[in-house]
Write a structure and sequence with these properties.
By secondary structure, the protein is mainly beta. It is built from two helices and 32 strands. A ten-stranded parallel β-barrel has the order 17-19-22-25-28-30-29-26-23-20. The termini are far apart.
Length: 431
């Protein structure tokens, strides 16, 4: 972050008490952070031990350092958690209206958090310790159960989170609104719902993180220049799920796999959905353009589908490039780029990909699709690649492998202007 760390203070010197769940250390921790901020910034250290706390407020130019063996653990009392207060209009980031998954930054239940950062810069959390969300349930929260987010940011820039672990999140491990020029690196996230969920962000990096999440590992949208690189993503939902259109997204050198180590808390399933799911409008209106999407050198296994792109009616898409993807154990669904209305994608490029799909041994399946509306399709009428409403599809050196038997065709295009194929092969294997 390139800040001058002028002072170092410890939370114990402000009265924090370790290893006593009856003590809420929020006041002591916040006084340490406040003094550090008032003196121009520096480091607030959390030593080894478990420090129970309600809401902690981050400040500009202050880094919280979790020493090895240190744990900040959420208190069991919901009243100890504050809700987000910001003058920023965040209404464009609402989703799920009309459902039990409706969430809004102005909802005092949805926006509760254990660690809060609002309108600050040049700050962060580092170290080898842990933040434990304590899986605090809230009957007034989303789905009548979700509790406070572990870390919530709004209107922040130049933030840095590195090295520590997050576990037992009562909702998202990280939720960010309008976060710019920030880095998430070498984090280990286990359990809870979403891992890192950013709604509105520019120049963000998520690198060398490992996540085992009950819901989406990385999610959100309205990103500009987002890099997801060298991450291990294991989810009982989606590896990466973009629900609002983004421009300049790179997902590279990641391992994305299922089934989930941590169950989806709502449904109790561990099945992984899409490795990468780009669906602007999937959870409510999200108008805008998606473009410059690059997906390269990713390794995928044991998921429903390696890539699912679905545009809403008020979206358009420019260019999507998929290179050097290796996928094994694709359990049900062809990879797809599509819209069900008329929203167009200009160009899809696939190079040097090797994708293996499990077949569906049903000779009646191809005929089942005849005359059926797309809203009733449980799978696609092809097993390998499906494109709909795309101007140009360019396929170069792509191998589609079929494990078992399937009576559907490997590829299908609906309303595709032009499809070019070069050095592409289809292989079938009977086991």
């Amino acid at each position: 972050m390139n800040i001058f760390l002028s002072i170092v203070v410890g939370i114990v010197s402000f009265g924090a008490v370790p290893n006593n769940e009856s003590v809420n250390n929020a006041d002591a921790i916040n006084r340490a952070i406040e003094q550090c901020s008032n003196k121009g910034g520096g480091v607030v250290t959390v030593p080894a031990g478990v420090f129970t706390t309600g809401t902690v407020y981050m400040k500009s130019s202050v880094t919280v350092r979790l020493e090895r063996g240190a744990t900040l653990k959420g208190t069991a009392c919901l009243d100890d958690y504050a809700s987000l207060k910001t003058a920023d209009d965040l209404s464009m980031y609402e989703s799920g209206r009309g459902t039990v998954n409706y969430n809004s930054a102005t909802d005092p239940q949805w926006s509760k958090a254990m660690i809060m950062a609002v309108g600050i810069s040049n700050a962060g959390i580092e170290g080898e310790g842990c933040i434990d969300g304590a899986d605090v349930r809230n009957p007034l929260g989303e789905e009548h159960m979700r509790g406070p987010h572990t870390i919530l940011m709004a209107g922040c820039r130049n933030m840095r989170f590195t090295g520590f672990s997050v576990k037992h999140s009562a909702n998202y491990a990280f939720l960010g609104y309008k976060v710019d020029k920030s880095v998430f690196s070498n984090l280990h996230i286990e359990g809870g719902w979403d891992g890192i969920h950013i709604r509105g962000g520019r120049d963000l990096k998520i690198v060398r993180c490992e996540m085992h999440t009950g819901d989406d590992a990385i999610a959100g949208g309205y990103w500009q220049n987002m890099l997801i690189n060298k991450c291990v993503l294991n989810s009982s939902c989606n590896g990466v799920r973009m629900i609002m259109p983004s421009v300049g997204l790179e997902i590279s050198d990641c391992d994305i796999y299922g089934p989930g180590k941590c169950e989806h808390i709502t449904s109790h399933r561990t099945r992984s959905e899409a490795a990468i799911n780009l669906e602007p409008g999937g959870w409510g209106k999200a108008p805008g353009r998606m473009d410059r999407i690059v997906i390269k050198r990713n390794r995928v296994r044991e998921v429903l589908t390696p890539l699912c792109v679905t545009l809403g009616d008020d979206n358009t898409c420019g260019r999507i490039v998929v290179e050097d993807m290796v996928a094994r154990g694709i359990t049900r669904m062809a990879m797809s780029v599509k819209s069900w209305g008329n929203a167009p994608t200009e160009k899809v490029v696939m190079r040097r990909c090797d994708l293996e799909f499990d077949g569906i041994d049903d000779p009646n399946l191809p005929a089942w699709f005849e005359g059926r509306p797309t809203s009733e399709w449980p799978v696609f009428p092809c097993w390998g690649m499906y494109f709909r409403n795309v101007g140009l599809v360019y396929i170069n050196n792509v191998t589609l492998r079929l494990k078992g038997v399937d009576y559907r065709v490997p590829c299908m295009c609906h309303n595709v202007g032009e499809m070019k194929k070069k050095e592409t092969q289809i292989l079938s294997f009977l086991f």
